[in-house]
Design a protein that fits this description.
- With about 160 residues, this protein is an alpha+beta fold.
- The chain has two domains: about 80 residues, GMP Synthetase, Chain A, domain 3; about 70 residues, Ribosomal Protein S8, Chain: A, domain 1.
- Strands 1-2-3 form a three-stranded mixed β-sheet. Strands 4-6-5 form a three-stranded antiparallel β-sheet.
- A hairpin with a 6-residue loop joins strand 5 and strand 6.
- Helix 4 crosses helix 5.
- The longest helix has 23 residues.
Length: about 160
């Protein structure tokens, strides 16, 4: 399957006149593939505020679905761009966690993609702290919250004179 995806993606970028020196496709999970591209045309592929990359990803998903007759999810990495973007996201989340720890107030995050929300949920759950995440709403309105667990105080009434 990786070779089929690679051939389709290579044709796609060639027809777009995008220069690329290396293209790799790896299976991450069932029906989820990671596509890594090295290209001097990365600003063109990524575009302003990641718009071109998201559009390219959506178009490629449609093409792959039609050619392979399967629904697959793809993650496209351009010159380690996703790694850099993920590092920025994690640093942003760390600062928000500090805010929640200091204030004890729940914090609603800006809109994040499903992939970003998953990364944040995983990162926070791995911390093993009194901070957790929750999502509310559905579809494009889905929002992620960083919350502090309530600490419960218990009183043993058997030891208190009332």
């Amino acid at each position: 399957m990786e070779d089929k995806i690679k051939n389709i993606v290579e044709k796609f970028f060639s027809k777009m006149l995008v220069d690329f020196s290396n293209l790799e496709v790896k299976k991450e999970l069932e029906n989820i593939y990671y596509i890594k591209i090295e290209s001097p045309d990365s600003p063109l592929i990524i575009g302003p505020r990641w718009k071109n990359l998201e559009d390219i990803k959506n178009i490629l998903k449609i093409i792959l679905h039609r050619k392979l007759e399967e629904n697959i999810i793809i993650h496209i990495e351009i010159n380690d761009y996703l790694k850099s973007k993920e590092d920025k996201l994690i640093n942003f989340i760390k600062s928000k966690i500090e805010f929640v720890e200091k204030t004890g107030k729940d914090l609603k995050l800006p809109f994040l993609s499903a992939y970003e929300r998953k990364k944040v949920h995983s990162f926070v759950s791995d911390l093993k702290s009194d901070i957790y995440t929750k999502s509310e709403w559905e579809g494009k309105e889905r929002r992620l919250y960083i919350c502090k667990k309530n600490t419960k105080v218990t009183i043993d009434l058997d030891w208190i004179d009332i």
